[in-house]
Specification:
Radius of gyration: 12 Å
Number of strands: 2
Largest sheet: 2 strands, parallel
Structural class: alpha+beta
Strand content: 5-15%
Helix content: 40-55%
Order of helices and strands: HEHEH
Amino acid sequence: CTVTEAFSGEAALAALKDAHAQGQPFKLVVCDLNMPEMDGQDVFKRLTADKNLSGTEFVMITAQIDKASVIAAHML
């Protein structure tokens, strides 16, 4: 099992696209709701909109405890 870390949503999407292009797509993404440049919701939306990446399993995590953030993450 290989783990790759990205420090922003943009970096995560770039790593996902690069891995797919090399024929070694990621099987699972664990993504924080709050990230620099692009939040986890936007990463999920862009990932699912990309026909090459849309089959990737996605888990959203957050340390947020406010009800609106939790509901927003759950509704994806």
